[in-house]
Amino acid sequence: MFERFTKDARAVVKGAVEHCARTGARTVEPEHLLLALLDREASRASFALASLGLSERRERVARALAEARRRAGLSQADTEALAGLGIDVSAIVSRVEETHGVGAMAGDPAAGDPAAGEPVAGGKGWRGGHRPFSRGAKKVLENSLRMALAHGDRHIGDEHLLLALTALPGLAAEVLADHGVTYESVSRVLYGGGGEAKAG
Questions:
Q1: Where does the record place Low complexity bias (predicted)?
Q2: What is d(CA 134, CA 45) in angstroms, rounded to the nearest whole number?
């Protein structure tokens, strides 16, 4: 499948691996793909994101992803839903971090235990620096092919990765939607139509 990726799409995948390594995460997640997309310039996805006003909000998106990571991947919507049930996620995160260190729920490398094979700050991470793609990130890559084919494109561009991120349920899609970037809005900017090709 990777032979179908354009130069821009390959750069996003490489950037996602770099974001993963920088944070010390165990696997490349959809959120790393989103951060790598936000780093791009002069590509179809960057055009779509700029058209939707997201390029000026990059830091807010990065902060929202970091906060969700600190909450063990719970989105703001998840946090609010739990609050409706009387569960204060912020209090839980604070208590866990008091006991185990800042970032403990995120799998932060600073909270890692080298004796247990966990990465530590400044370490090479998992398996000598190799980080596999999570099931969610693989699904984004697979659905990017579906997006390309649905739009009659022979190659997978970074715009197809963006479409796949917005189409699949998860933290990246929720954070994008919170900033006004949805599958429908991206499709409209890129193709001038609705989002009938949405994959799941």
A1: 106-119
A2: 22
pLDDT score at 43: 96
Q: Identify which of 28, 12, 15, 35 has the alpha carbon closest to the alpha carbon of residue 126.
A: 28
- In total, how many domains does the chain have? 1
Q: Contact, 122 vs 153, CB < 8 A?
A: no
- Whether residue 74 lies inside any domain: the answer is yes
The token pair at 196 is: 């009938």
Are 199 and 164 in contact by the 8 Å Cβ rule? The answer is: yes
For residue 143, what are the contacts with CB-CB under 8 A and spacing of at least 6?
164, 167, 168, 199
**pTM summary value:** 0.79
Residue 128 pLDDT > 80: no
Residue 196 lies in a domain: no
Q: Per the domain annotation, does 197 fall within a domain? A: no
The whole-number average pLDDT for the span 123-136 is 68
For 12, 31, 97, 154, the CA distances from 160, given in Å and listed in that order, are 11, 15, 38, 11
- Residue 71 has φ and ψ, to the nearest 5°, of -90, 25
Give the separation between CA 146 and CA 153, rounded to whole angstroms: 10
- Structure confidence at residue 190 as a pLDDT band (50, 70, 90): very high
CA-to-CA distance for 70 and 9, rounded, in angstroms? 28
